Structures are given as structure tokens and as C-alpha cells.
């Protein structure tokens, strides 16, 4: 990097070495080399992120990657990345994917091994393994730390909890429906 | 504006007049002068936006406002603005408001007339009128067209519909719970 | 916020707490809840800013608000915000407002209660209460700390003073006119 | 340039040729090769701009230059560039220069041939030839079309005119002082 | 996308459909599904880009991907992407990779299947297959059209040609060395 | 500057004083006042940079300048600035200049005293004194620290050295040609 970007000891809260102390390992990572274990996840998918908190050399670079592993019929449930766009490439298997625009249009299709799909910045989107074999994908983001909000998880497992009546009214459903939605 | 920003006839898809043909009315709007009619909205709130599609002079300016009117006990349900931050000022009444961070922390409190609350860019947030009188608020955005995704509405009323089993698996709930969630 | 934006203890010189230590009060403010006292201001207006130095949660959010209170016939004199756009909403009363383009065109009109006007980024603009009743307005900015340069004040009350002959020549007026302009 | 930046026929309202039709002359200009004639300017300076409206190849490049020629004792009066920073290099002679911060601090000094001074983005600043010989300078801007507002000129020669009482009240001076300020 | 980003028919010179006419296929691509044929390339590598000119839905999204296939011992020779950062993930095989900082430091190492390396924005970098088996990698960019300048190719095969004496002097080598460097 | 931009003690790794401790000298520099000594440079040119590491007041300002002095027939060899655009103005003499696009087009011409040429961001470019008299130029950049990669120097003098076979394969030339290219 040039000195303008990374001369401070810390930048954005992450280590930022001076050029003379930078090493190749700061720009290297093996964090995506092992498939995520989808066994422990009720939705049937595991997202492994290669972001600035794992790869120091990404600091100020504005790019990162994630690997998503899907159990048979597993899903990466509806979620948003605040402000980051995503470009997903299927490594193995076949996925049903889609996003919803701010005007309420659902834009989706099936994406097979070697194929790609764009999820525009900030819009809710999902992927679902559409068959009984495992699947895997790689995603590129135009942010070094996109962050993720899984919608159900964000609302139902926040701490402290979002008040139940807020959820009920907020979701336009009646209380008896929401109460049992414990995850 | 200077010529660099707005010399084209259209920019970002919105009219962009040359300086010599600009009039004061391009920078004026009365769109927020009338309270929204909360009677017709099941969630009990109406959002009126003063964005670039209503105020041509906002084109390339990176700022806009919305007015939110709340029926007694009405809510502006959980939603996101893709990439825009929001600063809300209560004009009338008292609201319970909050947002959820990407690490699952709920950050919220009561905000009364004349008080303000920040909703960081891209994070899910809501407001709820916490009593039996009408309420109103003004919000500022650092975008000329922030866009909005109301979460329940985005998932349950998208066209074409998001497949029911996707919603069920995605939300980690069982099908019988989701099916009746018709709005 | 996500960790990328606000993980450092300080960012831009303002406190930036780690997510785990953030509280709702960091995103809350009552600084605009009390009208400014216009009695003590010769121009007849008081600007109260809700910016990052008052509301820590605005750090990195790129948005802020101000409240302007006007005495009868009071004015918010010609000023600029370096690099920030402004969208003003009249809360009470009626204002004559306007800005001047870089090509020397004056763009202005009367704006009444509930109506709005855009002041494009960096251009000189003003508001004037056009009658004998108090007035008030709320402004949104696409900056967490827009800063303000009141033109007369900037030139005539800077410390150390701008040399008198500079002002005279600079303003294309003769010395005898400028000397008495003590505020 | 790469296709992303300049593939459209027009971008930002300026011609943007496709790569295959670009010529070297699009990136060339002799507009600064002749000194400005300071004889016709009451303030004693002439600014010649090399901006995107003169040099098509600057479109999307985010940089431009100006040449300023000063008559003996001539001044480039207080002005702002909306949103652009400036770095001035004295080619000939000696200038008194300065800017005023948003907190009212005057920051200035003498700058001689071969020396430089920074004018931070959006802040009011000026230069004055401090002796009886002609002077000249080159300024760099981080904008392809910075735009300029000369403060006195903007207020007193805008069309349509800014109302006299607005100027008087706005400048915190009494009417009899402002009326004769005809340029 | 929201209307602000993509309401125009063309933006940046690429098609930009209105939301109502967008289809899922605009956001889909199979351009990376077939390995590049490294047989026809003297350097022993083929780069296949999934950029906005191939995937219309990437317009305004600020992200893209490339697939690089390497023959045994093949190399992706030293090159730059003007302004874009790159994050490379090895899909198959083992690569020697590296970049050079603006202070002349070479930062490189071996990267194996499943491992990643960061190439900071604008810096010269390369990859080389370090053994006799084919290799492949995926790269993410924070630009929808990063563009590439292969250094040798840019200098030696530009049209019209860069004058030979310029190359010779420029490269600090004598003419007899440069003349035969025909590719 | 306003407090938002420069309130921290250090920003981007460079000193950033609080407004109250800023002095005029932070915004001043004489670093370009002395011509570079071209005698000690084999390529026959010397670049003197006025960037944030020399002029503290440039921090966060996004602009800088360089002075280039050319010996008779001297050249500023092919190089890139990662992400910054450049606008060059010839102060003395006559230069042959040019850049190469990402599509392999050479765009260049002769530029004489008082004339200018644009080098688009990130593209390789050069200047050559086309006669037997000294020459000089001033360049403006839209970055406070553009950084430079001289292509031959970057590849052949990096430390640790780039492996010879990488250079050979990378440059598509045979080893015997590259070996003697010692600088």
C-alpha cells in the first residue's frame, strides 16, 4: 500500500502497520480453506468470512470474500449487508437465489456450479440449496467488513430482546403467532 | 449548484436542468406540509418522503427528509434503508425506537417531543407510538433517495412471491406458522 | 454500527466506542428540544446544531440536523457550509430564503410552515423571517459536522483580524466604508 | 481511461468519448499559456481556469488547475470553492494569502515565488499582491470544476438582486452603508 | 436496486434498466463457468472477467470477479488495475504471488488451494503457477470494471507504438536490448 | 479546516492538529522552490513532491503537487500513481508526453511551455524532454499522497528481488535479455 493509506498504527480500529514492518502474511489467509460444518446450524448453511478482522492487509482495501457451505436443502436465510454489494459464484451444487427490490419486486432464479448472481447493495437476499447434495459458494463484497443482518435472527434473538408487542405489531401479525417463534 | 454537478439534462435518471434554466421551485416542496392519513395503514403509521423524485433540486445533493405520522399505538415496523443513515426528530408525542447491530445488540429507548435518535446506515430499526395520542416525526437522510425495505412486507408481499418453503426455512419457523401470515 | 465503521476508541477526533460498550444514549439527544433565545443575537436568529460533537452516535454516519429560531423580522445571514448540502423545513412562520449559484444567479422564494427548500452544497444562502411573528425551522445536512461560515462575521471578526486594506480591496469598496463595520 | 469511467457519450453533462474515439488533444490544453489581462479588473487580478469545460479529458478525473495573474497591489478577493481544496504555488512575485476557519481563526502569511499555500476545502480565502510588481500563481484543485463564489460579487451583483434589506440585516450593518456598495 | 442508483436508461455508458423492466438474468452470468484455454497464451495464463460489460446488473454495484486459469508453470505477468483492490482465492494448484509497494518493497509468498492473497489498489502484482500442474484462481475487485494494464504488453504492444528511444531511456537500458523485445 | 476533518492528533498516520493549535506554517511549504538536480539521475529527471508528508496542512485535503525537472533529453520514465489523476503544466521547455489506455491505445503528443496534459488515474504515462535544453513542469494530483511506481525500477530494484524467472516469463522475454538489465 502507499503510505497515505496505511501509515498509522491503527486505522478504523484495525492494525495498520507502517510499510517497513509489513509482511506477506498480513496479506495472506487460509481462513476459507476449510468448508464450514453445516451440521450445527438449523438453517443448514455456514458462512465463513475473510474480512479485515481476519486478514489485516484488507484494511482500507474496500474488498472481502465469504465462503458459504450449504447442507442438502440448506438455506442462507434472508439477510442484508448494510451498504455492501455482493457477487456470488457457485462452487458446487445448485442454488435458488434472489433479492427483493425497494419497490417490492422479487428477482431470483436458479444458479448452478460456475454461475454467478448479483445482490445489490443493502437489499434483502437469500440462497437455498435446491437439492439433496451439499453445495458451496464464494461471494465477493465491495467492503472490507460488510457485516450481516439475518432478518429473523436479528429480530428474534437480539439482546436485550425486542419487545414482543413491537414484533407483533411490527410484523403485522397477531401475538399468538409470534410468541412461539423461539429459535 | 455548480456546473459540474448538474449540467446534464438528466443525471441518475432524474431531471437535471442547466443552471440557466433552474428556478426556485425546483428547490422547493410542500410535500411534507400535510400529515399522512394513518387511518388506511394496518401498522398505524404513514411515511411521507421528500426525496429527489419529489424535489428535483435534491438531485446530486445527497440529502433528503421524511415525515412520519403515527396513529395512537401505531408503529413504523422494522425496516432498513440500503446504505443511508437516518436522524429522527420527534415533532409530536412520544415514541419507543431502536435498532439492532450486526452483532445482535438491541439499542433503543423512548424519545419524546423535541428529542432525536440516530439509526446507523443499513441497520434494521423501528419506531412505535407508545401511547394513545397521535405522534409525528421528521427524519433526515444522507441520501437523496434512501429507499426503504419494510421487512415483513418485503418478504411476504413481494411479487412474484418468495416461495413459502423458502420463507419457512429462512425464518427458522415451521410452515404452519408462516402460512397464515397474510397481510 | 458495524465494526468496520466504529471499532476504534476515537475516529475523526470524536469518541467511537466499541459495539459492546455502545448505549442507546450515544444515539440520543435532546439538544434541539429548546428554542434558541433570539434576544441576544443582533441578526435576530439562533442556530442550534445537533452534530457529532453533541451526539456521539452520529460519528461516521454522515448526517446531522440544526434547529434555527428567528425573532420577528430576524435573519440567518448569508453563510456557507463547506461541502455540505442542506434541506430546510419550516416549522413555524414564514421565511424568505435563497442561495446564489457560482454563475451569479439568485435563486429564492418565500417558504411557509410545512414547506421546504434546498441549499446546494457549498453555496452561499440565507433565510429571513418576513413578518412580525417568531419563526422556526429544521435543517438536514449530509455531514455529521457541516461547519458554518457566516460571511460578514468570518471577514470582520476573524482573529487575528484580516487586514483592513485587504477587506477594502477585496470587497471592492473604499476604505471609509469598511472601517466602521464593527460588529 | 478505462471503460467504466468514460464509456458514455456524455457524463456529468460533458462530452465523454468512447476509448476508440479519444484523441491526445482531448487531454491537452493551452488555456493557461497566456497571462490574464489584469487591466480590466477593479480588484486587480484575473483567474484563468483549466477545468473540464475547457479540457474534455478532465471529465471524471477529479483534478484541475487555475492560473491567477495579479496587477501590482492587486487582489484575488475573498471567495470560496464549494467543496474543493486548493494548493497554490507562486510563479512570480510575492503574495499575502490566508483563509478563515469555521471557528473564526485567520490563518495567513506571505508566500513568495516558488512557495506554496493550502486553502482547505470550502473555506473563505484570498490572495493579495503585496508590492508594486506583477505576480502570478498556479493553483491545483481536487475537482474537475471547482466553481467559485467571490463573496462581495456573489452578494452584490447577483441577478435578480438580493434584496437590499436582506443584505443590510444579513451583514449586520445599517442600510446607509450598504446602499452605495455598487460595483 | 433503488431508483436512485439505476433509474436511467444508461449510466456510466452501460445499460441501466428501470426497476420495472429488470429481470433476474440481468444479475446472472455463466461467464466464469468454463476454464480459460491457456494453450493460446505465451505467458501461460488466461483471465476471464465477470465485469459490468458482461453482467449488466453489476452497474453501480462497485464489485466484480475474475477467473484466472494457469498452464503448468504459467504466469499472470506483472500488471496493475487502475484504482481497484484485488483479493485472490486459489481454486486449484499452488501459486507464487506478490506485489511491490510504492517504496520498492516486494511482498510475496506461495499461496495454495483454498488460500488467499490481497493485492492493494493500484500496485503492480503477479501470480505464477509454481509447478507442473494446472492451477486456477478467483479474484474479487471493488470495482465493477477494474481494467488491467499488463506492463510489458502495455509498453511494447501499444498502438500507435511508444517510440523505441522512449522505451529505452525510460527503462534505463540501452537500445540494443530493447529492440528485440518483440512479443 | 472544520473540526470534523482534522480534530484528531493524528489522522491517516500524519499529524492532525486541533484547530486551536494550527499555524499558517502548517499550510505553507517552500519544498518546490528549488529545481531538482538532474545530474544524479540516469533517466535525466528529478521529481520533487509537495505531498502530505512534507506539508502537514494537506492532510485530508485530497490534493498535492509535484515539480519535475528534466535534463536535456531527460525522461520521467513510464510510471503509475495508484488511483490518482494528474494534470501537468509545462513551466519551461518542451516535452513529449503520453499515456496508454487499458485497451492498449497510446495517447500522446508534444506539450510546450504553458501547455497542459492530463494523465488519467492509474494509467501508465511518461514525459520526455524532446530537445537539448533543460525543461520543468508542475503537476497537480487529486490525492494528498499519490505515490509512484516507476515500472522498470519497481520490477528490477525491488527488495527482496523479484525472482529472475518471474521477470523473464512475466515480461515475455528470454532470460538472457533480462539478466543484464542491471540499473
UniProtKB/TrEMBL annotation, chains A, B, C, D, E, F:
<dbReference type="Pfam" id="PF00190">
    <property type="entry name" value="Cupin_1"/>
</dbReference>
<keyword id="KW-0052">Apoplast</keyword>
<protein>
    <recommendedName>
        <fullName>Germin-like protein</fullName>
    </recommendedName>
</protein>
<feature type="binding site">
    <location>
        <position position="81"/>
    </location>
    <ligand>
        <name>Mn(2+)</name>
    </ligand>
</feature>
<feature type="binding site">
    <location>
        <position position="86"/>
    </location>
    <ligand>
        <name>Mn(2+)</name>
    </ligand>
</feature>
<keyword id="KW-0479">Metal-binding</keyword>
<dbReference type="GO" id="GO:0048046">
    <property type="term" value="C:apoplast"/>
</dbReference>
<dbReference type="GO" id="GO:2000280">
    <property type="term" value="P:regulation of root development"/>
</dbReference>
<dbReference type="InterPro" id="IPR019780">
    <property type="entry name" value="Germin_Mn-BS"/>
</dbReference>
<comment type="subunit">
    <text>Oligomer (believed to be a pentamer but probably hexamer).</text>
</comment>
<dbReference type="InterPro" id="IPR001929">
    <property type="entry name" value="Germin"/>
</dbReference>
<comment type="function">
    <text>May play a role in plant defense. Probably has no oxalate oxidase activity even if the active site is conserved.</text>
</comment>
<dbReference type="InterPro" id="IPR006045">
    <property type="entry name" value="Cupin_1"/>
</dbReference>
<feature type="binding site">
    <location>
        <position position="125"/>
    </location>
    <ligand>
        <name>Mn(2+)</name>
    </ligand>
</feature>
<keyword id="KW-1015">Disulfide bond</keyword>
<dbReference type="InterPro" id="IPR011051">
    <property type="entry name" value="RmlC_Cupin_sf"/>
</dbReference>
<feature type="binding site">
    <location>
        <position position="76"/>
    </location>
    <ligand>
        <name>oxalate</name>
    </ligand>
</feature>
<feature type="binding site">
    <location>
        <position position="79"/>
    </location>
    <ligand>
        <name>Mn(2+)</name>
    </ligand>
</feature>
<comment type="similarity">
    <text>Belongs to the germin family.</text>
</comment>
<feature type="domain" description="Cupin type-1">
    <location>
        <begin position="30"/>
        <end position="179"/>
    </location>
</feature>
<dbReference type="InterPro" id="IPR014710">
    <property type="entry name" value="RmlC-like_jellyroll"/>
</dbReference>
<dbReference type="GO" id="GO:0009506">
    <property type="term" value="C:plasmodesma"/>
</dbReference>
<feature type="binding site">
    <location>
        <position position="86"/>
    </location>
    <ligand>
        <name>oxalate</name>
    </ligand>
</feature>
<feature type="binding site">
    <location>
        <position position="81"/>
    </location>
    <ligand>
        <name>oxalate</name>
    </ligand>
</feature>
<keyword id="KW-0732">Signal</keyword>
<keyword id="KW-0964">Secreted</keyword>
<dbReference type="GO" id="GO:0030145">
    <property type="term" value="F:manganese ion binding"/>
</dbReference>
<dbReference type="GO" id="GO:0010497">
    <property type="term" value="P:plasmodesmata-mediated intercellular transport"/>
</dbReference>
<keyword id="KW-0464">Manganese</keyword>
Amino acid at each position: 500500500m502507499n503510505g497515505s493509506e496505511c501509515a498509522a498504527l491503527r486505522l478504523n480500529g484495525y492494525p495498520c502497520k507502517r510499510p517497513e514492518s509489513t509482511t506477506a502474511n498480513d496479506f495472506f489467509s487460509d481462513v476459507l480453506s476449510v468448508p464450514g460444518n453445516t451440521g450445527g446450524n438449523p438453517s443448514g448453511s455456514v458462512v465463513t468470512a475473510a474480512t479485515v478482522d481476519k486478514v489485516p492487509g484488507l484494511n482500507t482495501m474496500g474488498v472481502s470474500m465469504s465462503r458459504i457451505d450449504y447442507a442438502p436443502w440448506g438455506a442462507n436465510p434472508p439477510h442484508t449487508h448494510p451498504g455492501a454489494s455482493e457477487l456470488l459464484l457457485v462452487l458446487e451444487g445448485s442454488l435458488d437465489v434472489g433479492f427483493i427490490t425497494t419497490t417490492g419486486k422479487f428477482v431470483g432464479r436458479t444458479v448452478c456450479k460456475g454461475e454467478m448472481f448479483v445482490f445489490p447493495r443493502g437489499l434483502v437476499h437469500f440462497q437455498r440449496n435446491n437439492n439433496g447434495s451439499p453445495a458451496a459458494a464464494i461471494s465477493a463484497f465491495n467492503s472490507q467488513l460488510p457485516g450481516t443482518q439475518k432478518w429473523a435472527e436479528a429480530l428474534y434473538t437480539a439482546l436485550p430482546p425486542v419487545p414482543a408487542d413491537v414484533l407483533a405489531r411490527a410484523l403485522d401479525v397477531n401475538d399468538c403467532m409470534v410468541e412461539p417463534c423461539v429459535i
